[in-house]
Amino acid sequence: MGWDRHEIVAEVHRRGSTLEKISQAAGLTRTACSCVLAGRRWPRAEQALADFLDVPVSTLFPDRYPRRDSDSVSRPAQGRRRNRRRGARAAVRQPVARVERRRAA
């Protein structure tokens, strides 16, 4: 089971830091790590927290990062965003099929 958000904050404070400092050290907005603990998916902030706590990302967020023994790097469970794929498909479509249907009718 993953860490509870309160456990993460408590451990960060025990180690003498804050969520804001971790976010800024990773080059993110100051609220990035707080947003992650509130439920937002933000892979770079999740990785920054895991690196600071010296644990795998899959240990902190097992629901977002399923543990894979064969992979050395944890990746989000989700695939690419749908809108990126849709845009690529839309650019490939051509109205040729419609013209051929009209001729056949």
Question: Please, could you describe this protein's structure?
Answer:
The chain has 105 residues and is mostly helical. It has a single domain, classed as 434 Repressor (Amino-terminal Domain), CATH 1.10.260.40. It is built from 7 helices and no strands.
In short:
The chain has 105 residues and is an all-alpha fold.
Which properties best describe this structure?
mainly alpha; 434 Repressor (Amino-terminal Domain); globular
Series of H and E elements: HHHHHHH
Topology-level CATH name = 434 Repressor (Amino-terminal Domain)
Question: How many beta-strand segments?
Answer: 0
Distance between the termini: 62 Å
Q: CATH H-level name... which superfamily?
A: lambda repressor-like DNA-binding domains
Shape: globular
Strand and helix map with partners:
Elements: H1 5-14, H2 19-25, H3 32-37, H4 43-53, H5 57-60, H6 82-92, H7 96-104
